[in-house]
């Protein structure tokens, strides 16, 4: 409920050089940035312009293991390849949560437990068509995009 109130649509009016009004041509009354709905357990947390050709994209899995009805707390795979209506993702790089380092090259503190060092597998190659989110996981990406006309 709090999320619905906080993220409720707001109308903003301003003078601008937008599309001119043409009598006889139906104005665009509805727009969606997504071509299809995200799975119910996935929330698009951040979509922000990073620079001219890239965006910061952050996705979160909203449920913990055993929470929610049905299988909403299971890992979920999202296809980002053709999800957005205004652009196409041409390349994807995962970053740390703060988006200040690429995940593959992040310098992390290394702890050596009494049982010996724990192996750290390298992050898998990213496929924008198959991003998997584990329960309660937030993943952050820099997406290189091609804007649609």
From TrEMBL:
<feature type="domain" description="Glycosyl hydrolases family 38 C-terminal">
    <location>
        <begin position="42"/>
        <end position="141"/>
    </location>
</feature>
<dbReference type="GO" id="GO:0004559">
    <property type="term" value="F:alpha-mannosidase activity"/>
</dbReference>
<dbReference type="InterPro" id="IPR050843">
    <property type="entry name" value="Glycosyl_Hydrlase_38"/>
</dbReference>
<dbReference type="InterPro" id="IPR011013">
    <property type="entry name" value="Gal_mutarotase_sf_dom"/>
</dbReference>
<dbReference type="GO" id="GO:0005975">
    <property type="term" value="P:carbohydrate metabolic process"/>
</dbReference>
<dbReference type="Pfam" id="PF17677">
    <property type="entry name" value="Glyco_hydro38C2"/>
</dbReference>
<dbReference type="GO" id="GO:0005764">
    <property type="term" value="C:lysosome"/>
</dbReference>
<protein>
    <submittedName>
        <fullName>Mannosidase, alpha, class 2B, member 1</fullName>
    </submittedName>
</protein>
<dbReference type="GO" id="GO:0030246">
    <property type="term" value="F:carbohydrate binding"/>
</dbReference>
<dbReference type="InterPro" id="IPR041147">
    <property type="entry name" value="GH38_C"/>
</dbReference>
């Amino acid at each position: 409920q709090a999320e619905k109130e906080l993220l409720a649509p707001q109308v903003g009016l301003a003078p601008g050089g937008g599309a001119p009004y043409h009598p006889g041509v139906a104005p665009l009354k509805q727009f969606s940035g997504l071509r299809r709905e995200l799975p119910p357990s996935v929330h698009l947390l951040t979509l922000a312009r990073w620079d001219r050709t890239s965006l910061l994209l952050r996705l979160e899995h909203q449920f913990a293991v055993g929470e929610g009805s049905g299988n909403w707390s299971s890992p979920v795979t999202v296809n980002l390849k053709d999800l957005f209506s205004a652009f196409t993702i041409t390349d994807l790089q995962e970053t740390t949560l703060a988006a200040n380092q690429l995940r593959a090259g992040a310098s992390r503190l290394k702890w050596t437990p009494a049982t010996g060092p724990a192996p750290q597998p390298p992050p898998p190659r990213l496929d924008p068509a198959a991003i998997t989110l584990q329960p309660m996981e937030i993943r952050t990406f820099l997406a290189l995009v091609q804007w649609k006309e």
